[in-house]
Design a protein that fits this description.
- The protein is mostly beta strands.
- It contains four helices and 15 strands.
- It has helices at about 1-15, 35-40, 255-260, 285-290; strands spanning about 70-80, 85-95, 100-110, 120-130, 135-145, 150-170, 170-185, 200-210, 215-225, 235-240, 245-255, 270-275, 275-280, 295-305, 310-320.
- A 14-stranded antiparallel beta barrel has the order 1-2-3-4-5-6-7-8-9-10-11-12-14-15.
- Strand 10 (about 235-240) and strand 11 (about 245-255) form a beta hairpin.
- The N and C termini lie far apart (about 65 Å).
- Residues about 10-20 and about 325-333 have low confidence and may be disordered.
Length: about 325
């Protein structure tokens, strides 16, 4: 299997031999550092095997935020551990409205000595709207500034879509998604399309639950990404839900460029998410918005990037209110 992947890597790199494409380690997508759940869900463009949407999800596919019915906030911190310590911090908000869902995620990266990403401030905003019964389309706009190596700026746009097929045979909540990220100028990019994060990263994927019972769930996802057809990246994720309290996430990435350079980690990522019901008080403001009962989901993750480089992430998502599980009200005259 490893030989097969390396052969595919050689093929992709042969197609791009004339290109100077050489991003920093893990530089194709900076925002996966925003939250531990992104690190462990196979960077799923379809929302993960067991569907989980947070503000940071919009950085992968802006259409994903259209799936969420509740106001949500996320907070994440990632330590990058090598001989020296680097770090990343992210936070965001998602606000559903009757017309469309809106959100944003901002991130600080301080990495001079670990993966060569530099020190930067990055922000993305996005909007998503439901079309027909099962189709969601989203758009995003990103800006960033890196002040360590290049003292450069970034201005990009994203577009994405997701279609929810519902239950098909043994596939539960089966979804397919696609997005094109970083349309525009990224850090140190030129007309030769050098730079990072990956310019015009085209991502397609699918996700579904294979087992869904009251006490247990099993979901899988698979993504394929082609950064301007100069690299080929496979991301796979698996999630186990135990009751409605704990979820164990694991993912594995094959990056053709990094594998050809001998830098691809063959060790799966591992993470855990807990779900707690919390009260938000009894004020008129809270009652009016049905936020009296809400969900707090803390999480943690570990990822080996390459040899002695490890990422350790902690975070939380607060979803205000409860998911609407009732059907539509029908009145007969």
């Amino acid at each position: 299997m490893k030989k097969l992947f390396l052969s595919m890597a050689a093929f992709v790199l042969a197609l791009s031999a004339a290109s100077a494409y050489d991003p920093p380690l893990q530089g194709e997508n900076l925002f996966y550092l925003s939250h531990p759940e992104l690190m462990t869900e196979g960077v799923s463009v379809a929302g993960g095997g067991i569907e989980s949407v947070m503000p940071a999800s919009g950085t992968i596919n802006p259409a994903l935020i259209g799936l969420e019915e509740r106001v949500s906030l996320d907070l994440g911190y990632t330590g990058m551990v090598k001989s020296k310590y680097s770090q990343a911090f992210g936070t965001g908000i998602l606000i559903p409205t009757d017309w469309a869902n809106f959100g944003g995620e901002m991130e600080f990266i301080l990495d001079e000595n670990c993966m060569g990403l530099g020190n930067s401030f990055n922000i993305k905003s996005f909007a998503a709207k439901q079309f027909m019964d099962r189709l969601y389309i989203g758009v995003g706009l990103g800006f960033g500034y890196e002040w360590t190596f290049h003292k450069d700026w970034m201005l990009t746009a994203d577009i994405g879509a997701i279609y929810n097929f519902g239950d098909i045979a043994f596939l539960k909540n089966f979804r397919v998604g696609a997005s094109t990220n970083n349309i525009g100028k990224t850090y140190a990019s030129s007309r030769d399309w050098q730079g990072y994060p990956a310019v015009m990263a085209i991502r397609v994927g699918a996700a579904a639950e294979f087992v869904r019972t009251e006490n247990f769930g099993l979901g899988l996802s698979l993504d394929v990404t082609t950064p301007l057809f100069m690299n080929l990246i496979f991301d796979s994720g698996i999630q186990f839900r135990i009751k409605d309290f704990v979820q164990i996430n694991s993912s594995w990435e094959f990056n053709s460029r990094e594998a050809a350079d001998g830098r691809n980690s063959w060790i799966p990522t591992l993470g855990v998410v807990f779900k707690f019901g919390i009260g938000m008080g009894k004020s008129d403001f809270v009652k009016k918005r049905d936020w009296s009962k809400s969900e707090l989901c803390p999480s943690a993750a570990w990822k080996n990037v390459d040899g002695d480089i490890n990422l350790i992430g902690v975070g939380a998502v607060l979803r205000l209110g409860q998911k609407d599980r009732s059907g539509p009200d029908i009145e007969m005259n």
